Amino acid sequence: MMMKLSVFRLVLLALMSWGAVHAAEDTPKNAPKDALKVSAEVLNQMASDQFEQREQAYGELKSWAAKHRQQAPEILYQVWKGVDNPEVKARCHALMKQSAIQRKFGKGKGFVGIMMDPVGQVAIRVLQVLPNTPAQKAGLQPGDVIVGIDALDFSELKEKKASFDARDTFQAYVSGKQPDDVVTLHLERGGAKLDKQVTLMKRPASADRGIFGQGQDRAKLEAEAFFKQWFMGMENAPSKEKN
């Protein structure tokens, strides 16, 4: 089941020339010259007879794609074109799609996982902590009063802007973050002040649906349409641009 290394050498030669021309904004200047290459060893291990080895190798490929998000879609396209193993090909295609969509749209909106109610215009009271959410993991409790987030102090912002609303500001700030971003909530609980670090999750589609279940995941449809267009562009591009 193991693939021949020579196949990947051909693929990697193409990737090396592509990476030399397309330097990414998020690649450190002192990064190794082979930073943009997909390891032939990893690809070979993805076709291993051993399930654990295949999973570990795919995990390494995913980590590589996340680290080099600007270049990953095009490089994974080249790998996908160059491999024959059905499982490796399918996984490269799935990761290529995910990488292209994330580069275009980001990972999604951030989400804390609370039901809340405004306390005037300068604070938010936690009414409910949703299960299996960042809020629950961080130890938030019903009755907690959120008076700020990161460098934003709601009282200070209210003094600068009469129409300021803490709840709207909080929602916009969290939605502007991405999953896995870490924010610090400034709370008041039982007269005491405390800070809670919260690692955000992806905002679920259900949080944006109307009361009648409208708004089927429009973002998903947009992402699918984008990837289809991007993929067709890669397929139709002159080979010298791909390589």
TrEMBL record:
* InterPro entries, alphabetized: PDZ (IPR001478), PDZ_sf (IPR036034)
Q: Does the keyword Signal apply?
A: yes
Secretion signal span: 1-23
What residues does the PDZ domain cover?
Answer: 109-162
Query: What UniProt keywords apply to this chain's record, in alphabetical order?
Result: Signal
**SMART domains recorded:** PDZ
Pfam families assigned to the protein according to its UniProt record, in alphabetical order: PDZ_2
Q: What is this protein called?
A: PDZ domain-containing protein
Native organism taxonomy:
Bacteria, Pseudomonadati, Verrucomicrobiota, Verrucomicrobiia, Verrucomicrobiales
